Amino acid sequence: MLLRRLRRQAGLTQEEAAERSGVSVRTIRRLETGTSADHRVGTVNLLADALGIGLEDRRTLAAILTKAQNATASPPPPGADPDPEPGEWAVKSPGRAHEPPAAHSFPTPGPPLPVHDVLAVAAQELAREVSRSWRHEEEQRQVHDPYPLPVRWQQAPAHLVDRWENIRRLGPGAVSPPLDLSGDVRSVAEVYQRIPSGRLVILGQAGSGKSILTIRFVLDHLEHPGVDGRVPVIFGLSDWDPTATALHDWLTGRLLRDHPHLSRTVPSGSTLAAALVDAGLILPVLDGFDEIAQGLRAEALKALNASSLPLVLTSRRGEFTEAVRAVHAPLVWAAGIELTALTPDDLAAYLPRATRTVTPGNGKGDRGAGGRKTASVWDAVLEALRTRETPASTNLAEVLTTPLMVVLARTMYSQTPDPSPAELLDFARFPTRTALEEHLLSGFVPAVYRRRAPRQCVPGHRRRQRNCGPERAEQWLGYLAHHLTRPGHGRQDLAWWQIGDCLRRPARVTAVVLATALCITTADWLVSPFFPLPDIGSTLLMAAFAGPVAGMAFGSIYAVLMSFRDWAAIEPARAVLRLLATHHREGRRLLPVFISRFGHGLLGGFLLGIGYACALALARKLYGGTPLTSPHAIESTLINMLLFGLLFGSAAGLAFGLVAALEMPLDVSTAATPATLLSSNRSTVARQTLLLAPFLTLTITLGGHLAAELLDGLLGPLQWGMWDGLLIGSVAGIGGGVSYALAFTAWGQWFLLSGIWLPLTGKLPWNTLAFLDDAHHRGVLRQTGAVYQFRHIRLQHHLADAYRHRST
Length: 808
What we know:
- By secondary structure, the chain is of the alpha/beta class.
- It has four domains: 194 residues, Rossmann fold (3-Layer(aba) Sandwich); 97 residues; 86 residues, Arc Repressor Mutant, subunit A, CATH 1.10.10; 246 residues, no CATH class.
- The protein has 28 helices and twelve strands.
- A six-stranded mixed β-sheet has the order 1-6-2-5-4-3.
- β11 and β12 form a beta hairpin.
- α14 runs antiparallel to α15 and α21 crosses α22.
- It is globular and about 100 Å long.
């Protein structure tokens, strides 16, 4: 095929082409063999740039790939919409036309893309990914089953929005009537397009449907993009500290977390994520202003007012009102809407159709198969809500005014024949609105786990599955909710790389010490038999001391790094390691990274070398009887500290610098989900370990021999036998490489703390990620990019409070 011929003409292997372009080897292989049926504009352009082909070859390549794709694609059914999938539209640079191309079409290839076209391709890829992920999330939440709950709104109070002249961006002296912002969930994107300033505040009580409305806004906006070509991206505001992080930097960081391929750099030196924000190609949809820490909301509003970014902001009315009063100004240029309550007619239309369990008809209710009347389990409740003749019905009517409570009630009563929703009218059990809400919140998790217990309780051992019912799942979810709502750590994002930091610092350091000690000791015992050592007893004794000493060294470094805020939770790598491909990276950006990695390795290796010298002295004392306080022992120990410290430190520094030189940004087609990000980091850590182990072994072996030759006589007689050096190097390489992976990588911390420590204590299941994915499919969690969140913040707080109550 043409692509294969062009690649060979450029003298590149598939791996080298992948390295230059950022397109995965698998994708290149599928394009060359014609087995791929989804050719993206960005993929073709990136490959063309990497191969350095001319204009005519670019056009030919695009035409051939398009022809192959059309041949493999299934023909559309009669009457199918010929428009492209929502989100598959080309984002143009400012000033260009914005006409969506036909399905699967490509722009005419040309010379290497200028910066603004590179951003356009990145924005297009981001739009596709955002559309795909939020459509899947709507399906997981069963938003369209049987149909979306009606979400309506009214104009927000005048004191919470800006003047209409400012919203319309009119000049001095102009007077403007109010804009027409009427509509419902089906027209939210259209309503937004009426606002000239591009700023909208969505207010509503807890559970009123703000999050569902924002998802629908994003999907509709992507389906019918405006002339500005901005890509709407939802950002949860709960962990934004405006006093510590500027809005631009925070948006960039969240883009990098949820879309790691945007870490690729542009010629200006910034990342694609930062460049997209700078170019105004991101439309921030800021969800949950009320979830920002109370003392920071006013500062957050000031930061938003200092920005001119178009945006959509959601919040509960009370918290937003307090911030407006504190700042003495609303969100500048922003129009506002406030969500209204569901009506009894809405419930009467929705709940019976959402019910899967029906009883023979009594002349009322919906028509069943063949026109036969059926009665819903909700009939008695709906009649009570209509009449409101009792205090119980009045309380229930007030509770079921929000989509959240309606969904909770539906989950508990509409999909199982027992219990009956009529119990909600029991005034003795539920005398207040709060009691009813707590009942619905507490019954949600048992209801979704009642039909099928979680599979992640205990690996094997069917006889122990009786401990794996809804109660166990609720306990694990409660622990995770407690982890998110601890004082000083309140947030919504449940990231797999942050779960381990719910442990206290002494427990985390202890886990690292034990794990690294075990790694070094095991490596010593495994490697020693392969070396012709005259004194195996001394070697084994040395191994017994080297492990704990190394563990203490790693634990000390780990404890120091944990005291810094940036290291409190080790972030996952946004890069992959390419061992067999040439590396192309700007030297000005590689050098600072290399220096930083070298410094970390030098410090850690030096401390490890000091510990190893002390362990060697102690082993000689116990095995050979050499007094620790003798002048000769003190002198030799100090010399060993210096030599081993410099040797281990320089070897570790060079090794980590080499790793930095071989890192490449993630593939542009990499999806940002918790599972894929974890898998990518696991592969990266495995490659790092496979690189570090032999490199450390050779560097320590040869470096020790060279140091002994150069410093012999200056520091006294030095002995460094080749076999002794190879043994020390092998133990340091294998044990040190694995220890580094466990202690200082996001995947290693996940494996050590969330995969072993927390399951051993019963706090989490053995396969935590599978449990989280299962909870997502059941509707308990929602997925936002690379992290999970609880379905609603009220559910999170309820589970956390219940867990703390059980633990006391």
